[in-house]
Amino acid sequence: MEMIMTVPASAFNGYFLKMFVLLAVILAIFGSARAQQYNGKYLNNVDAVGVILQGYDAVSYFSDNKPVKGDPKYSARFNDATYWFSSEEHANMFKERPEIFAPQYGDFCGYAMSLNKLRPVDPTIFQIVDGRLILQHTQDAFIQFNKDIHGNIAKADANWPGQVVKHVGKKIKFDKPAQSALQDNAGVRN
């Protein structure tokens, strides 16, 4: 004799809703493509006291479409870096969803990362692509990166995990700059 068990649809809806929320939380914590963690540590371009973006407000890039200097009295920690903000409102926005506002590639140059290199950034040379804050080292790097923006993002995304493994927990030694495309081939570098 076959036994059939019936469960009210509302029980499934509640169960599936709980499982969906749990899965979303797990993916947000562990499955982010933007994650920079390796072996419990993060790779970030920070100053001697751990401040990222040279003290610029990460939220301002999105809300004001420009970099605005932050103030240490409005700060937050995320992925082993200290962020400064220009207002309490921006600090609170960041604290609610830091992964949205944090710079890509640990605040290292996007173009250099596409070449599998680590370079510092100029926090005034930036762009937001598909909701991701990407900074560049020089105007030339910005131009080169944008010649094939989606291809260069794909390369940078692929190179980033290896750079994290290679450099996390170590003193950063920046790679040499790429050959400038703005100069002739006389050996001038950016």
Task: Compile the SSE list and pairings.
Layout: H1 9-30, E1 37-38, E2 41-42, H2 58-63, E3 71-78, E4 81-85, H3 88-96, H4 98-101, H5 110-114, E5 122-129, E6 132-136, H6 139-147, H7 149-167
Any overview of this molecule?
- By secondary structure, the protein is of the alpha+beta class.
- 39% of the residues lie in helices and 16% in strands.
- It has helices at 9-30, 58-63, 88-96, 98-101, 110-114, 139-147, 149-167, and strands at residues 37-38, 41-42, 71-78, 81-85, 122-129, 132-136.
- The strands form three sheets. The protein has a two-stranded antiparallel ribbon with strand order 1-2. The chain has a two-stranded antiparallel ribbon with strand order 3-4. A two-stranded antiparallel ribbon has the order 5-6.
The count of β-strands is 6
* Uncertain parts: 1-12, 19-39, 184-190
- Helix tally equals 7
Gyration radius, in Å: 21 Å
Supply the key terms.
two-stranded antiparallel sheet, globular, 190 residues, alpha+beta, single chain
Please give a quick description of this structure.
The protein has 190 residues and is α+β, with helices and mostly antiparallel strands. The protein contains 7 helices and 6 strands; from the N terminus they run H-E-E-H-E-E-H-H-H-E-E-H-H.
